[in-house]
Structures are given as structure tokens and as C-alpha cells.
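C-alpha cells as discussed.
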């Protein structure tokens, strides 16, 4: 009787384990990705130059804007490398990602640094710290999310590229394309505060510098519809914050098998 119960229990456990893998079939591993500031200080400084002081929105530039919900692994790089560039948040935010609209996974559980523009003396990150998402295969769409004050609030709002899934129905993520040699990069900025700009009666500064990351090995669809290569990678960087709001028609990414 006990043997039968044990065998049945093991069978159920095995079935559940298989179901879990089947629902999250995009296998991957996460490893330390080094530090971009240490390996390529010029490139890091270029990205970091886009980050202004808190409450001052990042300036415009000529980097192509991407539909933030169209990001995908380029299939060329061996991994998707995500580097922390800076943050100007009063919150202790978390950074998550998902593959092909699957479950959300933690990448950085405390986006805070003693070196950031709003320094946190006990923040665990140094500017430029990275993580790598490895062992990818096939057509992989990738989404990034910020969980507002997630370090201290397990029920904090989660904001991503799809405005329809954001609690306030507003844009909280912007993405800009950057190319260097054979590497595809996307520079991403998040806004972590709920609601409209305080000038419109809300409480948000809408500066999109609350979490700023640079991602290597990812491409996306340009808002202007062009596919022309960026001719000169070493340009002055910045992110368009307000101009994209209302001007971009957001769409859900479709990954072609």
C-alpha cells in the first residue's frame, strides 16, 4: 500500500514538473555578465551621458526609436547581456524579464547603487554591472519590466512596454537602437511612478531615468519603419521621453516561428 502510494506520488510529481517545463519551454540560464564600465569605459560613458539629474528628462538624440514591445534576441550574440547604466529613483526597484510572453523572471532584485544619480549607500550595484541571459535558441521575443519599489513592496506596480498592462495605462518604457561594430544594442529607460506628470495633476516626473539599462544582443522594430544601419555609433546619446508619449502607437510583438 505504501509502495503504491509512493509510486503514485512520484508519478504526480513528475507530471507536474513536466507541465512546468512545458509552460516555460524557453530554457535559459542567468550568469554574471561582468561590468561594462570596466570592459569598455568609453561605451559605458557614452550610455551614461544620457542620464541627467533626477526630475530632468533625458535629452533628445538621433538614435532610432524602437517599439519597446518589439524587442527580440538577434540570434547572433551568444547571449542577451543586460548592463545597469544608472538610476534616479527614490524607490528600490527591481528589473525583470520574460521570453516569448512567458513568466516573468528576476534579473536584478535591487536596482540601487551608491554611485547612481540618486545614491543609495547600501545599494548592491556598481554602475556598469551586468547579467547575461544564456542558452537561448530559436525565435525569442524578450520583454523587460520594472517592479516599482519591489525590494520593499511585494505588491508594487509592474510596468513594461505594453501600456494596456500598466496599471495607469501609460507609457513607462522607452527604447533606442544603437549599433557598434557587429553588436546590436538597445538603450532602455523606465519611469517607475504611477500616473501623469505633476504638471498635469499627477505625481510622476516622467523622466524615464528611474532604471536605465543597456542591452546587447537585442533588436527591435523602428518606429519610423526604416531598417537603415546607424552609420556612426559614437554619437551623443540621450533618450526621447515626452516626444514618444502619444506619438507612438504601441503594438504587441508577434514572433514569427
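Sequence:
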Amino acid at each position: 500500500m505504501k509502495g503504491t502510494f509512493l509510486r503514485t506520488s512520484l508519478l504526480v510529481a513528475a507530471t507536474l514538473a513536466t507541465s512546468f517545463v512545458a509552460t516555460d519551454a524557453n530554457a535559459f540560464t542567468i550568469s554574471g555578465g561582468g561590468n561594462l564600465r570596466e570592459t569598455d569605459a568609453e561605451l559605458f560613458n557614452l550610455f551614461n551621458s544620457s542620464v541627467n539629474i533626477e526630475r530632468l528628462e533625458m535629452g533628445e538624440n538621433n538614435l532610432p526609436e524602437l517599439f519597446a514591445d518589439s524587442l527580440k534576441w538577434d540570434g547572433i550574440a551568444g547571449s542577451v547581456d543586460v548592463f545597469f547604466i544608472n538610476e534616479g529613483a527614490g524607490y528600490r526597484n527591481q528589473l525583470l524579464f520574460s521570453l516569448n510572453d512567458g513568466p516573468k523572471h528576476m534579473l536584478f532584485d535591487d536596482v540601487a547603487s551608491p554611485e547612481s544619480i540618486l545614491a543609495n549607500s547600501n545599494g548592491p550595484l556598481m554602475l556598469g554591472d551586468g547579467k547575461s541571459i544564456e542558452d537561448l535558441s530559436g525565435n525569442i521575443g524578450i520583454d523587460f519590466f520594472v517592479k516599482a519599489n519591489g525590494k520593499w513592496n511585494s505588491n508594487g506596480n509592474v510596468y513594461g512596454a505594453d501600456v494596456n498592462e500598466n496599471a495607469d495605462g501609460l507609457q513607462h518604457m522607452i527604447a533606442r537602437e544603437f549599433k557598434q561594430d557587429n553588436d546590436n544594442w538597445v538603450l532602455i529607460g523606465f519611469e517607475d511612478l504611477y500616473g501623469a506628470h505633476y504638471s498635469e495633476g499627477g505625481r510622476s516626473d516622467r523622466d524615464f531615468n528611474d532604471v536605465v539599462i543597456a542591452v546587447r544582443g537585442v533588436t527591435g522594430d523602428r518606429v519610423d519603419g526604416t531598417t537603415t544601419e546607424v552609420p556612426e555609433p559614437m554619437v551623443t546619446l540621450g533618450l526621447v521621453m515626452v516626444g514618444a508619449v502619444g506619438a507612438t502607437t504601441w503594438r504587441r510583438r508577434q514572433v514569427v516561428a
